[in-house]
Amino acid sequence: MPRIEAVFKNASGESLSGSLEMPSGAVKSYALFAHCFTCSKNNLAATRIARALADFGIAVLRFDFTGLGNSEGDFSNTNFSSNLQDLLAAAHYLEAQYAAPSLLIGHSLGGSAVLAAAQNLSAVKAVATIGAPATAAHIKHLFADSYQQLKNQQSVQVELGGRSFKIQHQFVDDLENYNSVEHIKSLEKALLIFHSPLDDVVSIDEAARIYTAARHPKSFVSLDHADHLLSNPEDSRYVAEVLSAWASRYLETDQTPVKKADSDMLAVAPGNVIVRERDKKFTREISMQHHTLISDEPIAMGGADLGPNPYELLLAALGSCTSMTLRMYADHKQLDLQDIQVELHHSRIHAEDCTDCEKQTALIDRITRVIQLTGNLDAKQRTRLLEIANKCPVHKTLQNKIQIETSIVD
After folding, report:
1. Which of 15, 45, 89, 269 is deepest in the core (most CB within 10 A)?
2. Buried b (16+ CB within 10 A) or exposed e, 84-95
3. pTM of the model
4. Which of 273, 279, 277, 278 is nearest to 314 (CA)?
5. The domain 310-399: what is its CATH number?
6. pLDDT tens across 187-217, in order?
7. What is the CATH number of domain 3-145+173-247?
8. Buried b vs exposed e over 19-36: b needs ≥16 C-beta within 10 Å?
9. Which residues are registered as beta bridge partners of 61?
């Protein structure tokens, strides 16, 4: 499935690095994933869950907090408050480039962060936490041996998860500001809590604190036998499957491709085509009376590469019509035409290179079409089939003078 590298600025103007996992088909909704403390966006659990959710049509942005992974900044200058600002910057990036996130997911301390940030994001409809403490202050125990040192010096070096980090006194002070569950009580978002009873990093008692503080709708799922980091890929997949099913009850579904059988389908008159935005870049949903498809641009052009670009659709129309017309003629004349392949290419050339053009002062569009016919056909039959190819309806339309009438409505 496509992955888009995302770079955006935090409140301090530093560049944060992210990865946006896109579904192979239409995007149902957008989600923002906050990883565990000192982890990166490439953390295995975050990566697996994001990719699995993309399989269910949910685009997921995961990113490196300031000073971690490929993001700019000094980790020692960060704190929980700056993590919240990074989360808001990521949400604003999604809203500006695609659509505002309607789902927040947080793993470990990232869960505490999404619980705290959710109230500042009106588009968010649902929040999910995975092995999360109820408040950021829970992680103070990680610095228990450093407290005394921080009273006498500005910063200390600590070992966290097998890695060495420098933390400053302001980091620990900042945690004191997030020692209450009052914000959970006023969340006003659907909440899903994942936690393992075997979690030896964040006690399941923290899940109980979150659940007790939250108001309905709220749900709890026990990740039996899972460790804190969801090291087993099956645990990550299970989280994604349950989360996708649960979230579908709360998220807007207007971005889901609509099928004919759906009662709330987009009504399209016979012969008409409706094109709607699926993000604020190039992804578009094309709806006909009985069919839906996606158009996009390549990643190199700033798109998500979820479908053919407009010119490829144009070539597809001509190629399809050519092949259909040839088949109809061959069947009518009972020709031994076993297979048809049509290859097309679009380019722009200078008019002076066109021997058939009346004006030779500008660029013109040229479509080359190569038809491969397989079967027991003589030269006369092949020549006739070439003539028939040039008479296909789309070919005639493209060669005719086309009048396009455009109007704008509210």
Report:
1. 45
2. bbbbbbbbebbe
3. 0.65
4. 273
5. 3.30.300.20
6. 889 999 999 999 988 889 999 999 999 999 9
7. 3.40.50.1820
8. bbbbbebbbbbbbbbbbb
9. 20, 32
